[in-house]
Specification:
The chain is 57% helix and 15% strand. The strands form three sheets. It has a five-stranded parallel sheet with strand order 1-4-7-10-13, covered by helices on one side. Strands 2-5-8-11 form a four-stranded parallel sheet, with no helix packed on it. It has a four-stranded parallel sheet with strand order 3-6-9-12, with no helix packed on it. Helix 1 runs antiparallel to helix 6, helix 2 packs across helix 3 and helix 4 crosses helix 7. The two termini are 36 Å apart. The protein folds into two domains: 105 residues, no CATH class; 157 residues, no CATH class. With 276 residues, it is of the alpha/beta class.
Length: 276
Amino acid sequence: MLFAKKLLLLTVVVVMAGSTLNAEENRAVVSFGKDVIVKKDDRVNDAVSIGGDVIVEGEVGNDAVAVGGSVILHEGALVNGSAVSVGGEIRKGEGAVVNGDIVEVGLPWKRSGKEVWGQVFGGLRILSFLGFIALSILLVALFPRQIAAVSESVSLAWGKSLLWGFVTIFAVVPVAFVLAISIVGLVLIPFEFAAVLLFSFVGYTAIAHRVGLLLLRAAGRKNALMIWETLLGLVLLGMICWIPVIGMLIKFAAGILGLGAVVEAFFRGRAGSVKV
């Protein structure tokens, strides 16, 4: 229950952080794989690091968030919003002030008692999660309209997308069997599996975007950047997927739904012609 409360609070914080990018004059610092440093006498609206630490010597107008790292507040640092660390800790120096909530979300496997191997597995899982986020954000940056097309397919016809997903999964083995009959077909089998994996990745990213979009709109933030919407959805889905059993079921359902949405959007020719 405590973990769920922290997860809910983390979601709210990310929603609030994402909304600050709506105006061009607002300055937010977001980093993947390295530390975010707010130097003394500097001020930023938000400081977010995925795969690194957030080190604050100056002032953060809203929230300081580290996913896979720690939030380190030096002497005299000021965070007007919340300080959030997922998989790390909050370190406060003397005189450092946090006006909002201080949230430390410990990852479930760190409490499993597996010690060395548990930490190794946990570290690899964090790296995998961060790498997935980075690739998804890159995908959205390069192909925003196509991701929006798949995302809309989920919203308009989720039942059809789910059906397409199951049909695609069940068709993989028969198609591979047919391809194996000929020498040319044997060469194409790896490409078939690669295509399914790629479609699944694109679909999951689109699902994450739709989740983030709906959450931000529910919070009254209707003009957030697509990257922020996707990042919020990825973090939320990623945290949910860490929950035993339920998380795996949700991840499987999201993968099937996303795969089907890609196939459905592909055949309908929606990619590149959708308004969000």
